[in-house]
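fwd from M.: "can u put these together and see what the complex looks like"

so here's what she sent:
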Amino acid sequence: MENAIEVRNLRTHYGNIEILKGISLNVPKGLITAILGGSGCGKSTLLKHLIGLLKPTEGNIIINGRDIAGMNERDMDEVRKKIGVLFQGAALLNSMTVGDNVALPLREHTRLEGSTIQIMVRMKLDLVGLSGFDKFYPSQLSGGMKKRAGLARALAMDPEILFFDEPSAGLDPITAAGIDELILRLKDIFRITIIVVTHELASLFRIADHVIMLDRGEKVFEGELDELRASDNPRIRCFLERQAEEREYTPEDYFRIIAGD
Amino acid sequence: MKTDAMEIEVLSYRGIDVLKVYGDIDLYSSPGLRKNLISIICKKPGTLLVDLSNVSYIDSSGIATFVEGLKNMMCYGGRLKFIGLPDRIREIFSFSRLDKVFEIYDGIDQAI
């Protein structure tokens, strides 16, 4: 299996705190990889490294054969043209119509004629079920529609790799299931490599081909869904069975923490 | 004409214009394709054949370019016909339901 992304020994810090602790992983080409883990496990930080928004303290991030870890911004911009990202809040520009939001990357990065771009915008909006909404402003859309509009913009440049940051967050179960179906269609029809950062188990079991689970900045699992289900790792079992985490420190530790010692 | 990873050849077969495309039709080569397509359509041919048998990849900018070409030809009753679609491209046309709008034929003789 060919890999679209390979991460080797990735370490990163926020100040003195080590957030990612030497992670290595592979993202297979043309499949859906889910990056899983509880809040604060480092999955969003990992995503920011994969799209080049953060630079690691140490390690390599190889996308289509090129290491982006030490890459300058100019080269990184070329890599980003092949990447689409749907951010958690959709990140639409509120002062622009939905159509202009989708057209923006095409106007910025290509020499396509306005007439071609307009057709492409209508194609992308139709793909995400938003035909006829090109003149709407983001404030006039529901949460699910904003996500779809954000996805249309992420697809504008026909990316080879598409990242989703918590695509179901804040959506009702039916709308969330609709986003999952859309993700599956994108994989099947366009053979895009898809990376989904999530902690939604229903979504995970519906869409993922390959799973990477993080816990406290470390990779605790990488493999297929069946292997994840069969794992006897207590951290994985806790997560899959939705068990609350036990406090790991003593009353004396707790006193030291709140006393600021 | 060569545009990045794409080449275009304009031929005539039994008096019908044939636009033969080679390589990848993507965001960077589509403007060149559009320029050629529109310059032929400006002469209002009754039929224009587009041969995609040597195209390895087409993205949404390429599809949009052909949609624009067809729209322009429909204005005067012209016909845009496609021949030699590789399976992968036929799949993409089919997914976007454009296989119902574009006239698609296996070969040049079936198309004329």
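replying to her w this: Chain A has a mean pLDDT of 91.
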